[in-house]
Amino acid sequence: MSKSHFFRRSVSRHGIQSAGLSNERTREVSPLEKLGWKPFFLQQLSFEELEQTLPLRVMAVHRNRLELAGEQGIVSLPLTANVALNMPTVGDWLLLQRETAHFVRMLNRSSQFERMAPGGQQVQMIAANVDSVFIVSSMNEDFNLSRIERYLALAKESGCRPHLILSKADLCEDHSLFLQALRPFGELPVAVVNSLDKDSVVQLRLWCLPGETIALLGSSGVGKSTLLNTLSGEPLAETGEIREADSKGRHTTRKRSLHPLSWGALLLDSPGMREFGLVHVEGGLAQTFADLDELARECRFSDCQHQSEPGCAVQKAIANGSMEERRLQNWQKLQRELCRNSHTLAQKRAGDRALSQLYRSVQNQARLRKYPGEN
Questions:
Q1: How far apart are CA 344 and CA 112, in angstroms?
Q2: Alpha helices, DSSP H only, in the chain?
Q3: Inter-axis angle of helices 290-297 and 325-370, to 10 degrees?
Q4: pLDDT by residue (tens digit) across 321-333?
Q5: SS3 breakdown of the chain: % helix, strand, coil, rounded to 5?
Q6: What is the pTM of this model?
Q7: What angle do CA 350, 353, 358 make, to 5 degrees?
């Protein structure tokens, strides 16, 4: 049997297990709560909607329909223009009429994940109403601290609780090397698992409480789908092999989808996203690099670029070994990326407004030519 480790520096291992398992045994969860229904969503309903509508959650988005789940089971909703206008994504809550099952409206989100779509011209929604995030990273050549920081910025901006899962423990002889590399992340909860071993992943149930929605994030080949299958005890997701040359995987998950677990939690599996452009995560980036922000305040010059300026506290920390230069470089890279993506979106919005004004002008001129006496 492979070794497994569970790390959370603020609380003892015994304390976490006792509290988590006690809550899991004593709490009764309704069928709707098992789908993630919370007071936040209930408070958005009027008295009429409580009587006349049913709340259902988006479990998967297909090309021309949505797969929904509610107290009555699974429902397929055609992706009509009225529904598509709301741009629902996996995890959203929709209201349908009780009698006709017609779409009424979409509820406000408690959290949302979005990224700059490949090509860098628009924002792409990933998921909504997520409570926690499992950032999955394998302990091999594909381990990448900069990628973990990217996912952390996304999770913290959304207000979700981030956890780090180090997978492939059975293929790694020395786990301590990877754990040492995580020192800059402070109190981030970390678990080391063999995703193929149910005894190894059972520790994660302490983070998968009834009614909670957990998103699995990570690049292809880190073992997200394997982890989902082992945690659930069912073959819910297709799995594949990684390339031996560079430890990188191939896409096996084709679409994002929510999977209910037997004890009431939900796991969101998503395709590996190596191209994960950040947008609208300024707050999350500041939280992820809070140590750098604090050091930057100690620099002699308020506009210090942390390069060769005298009195730079960041460069001093790098020189004495208390901070990696890689972390500074990634911080600067992500800041530039955010600035570039925000500028691109602003330009696109301005272009869209100008195009709309042009359309209206052309339509008005055509109307005047057709009906000259109107003006």
A1: 21
A2: 13-26, 39-42, 47-52, 81-84, 145-158, 176-181, 198-201, 224-232, 282-288, 290-297, 313-319, 325-370
A3: 100
A4: 999 999 999 999 9
A5: 40, 20, 40
A6: 0.80
A7: 125
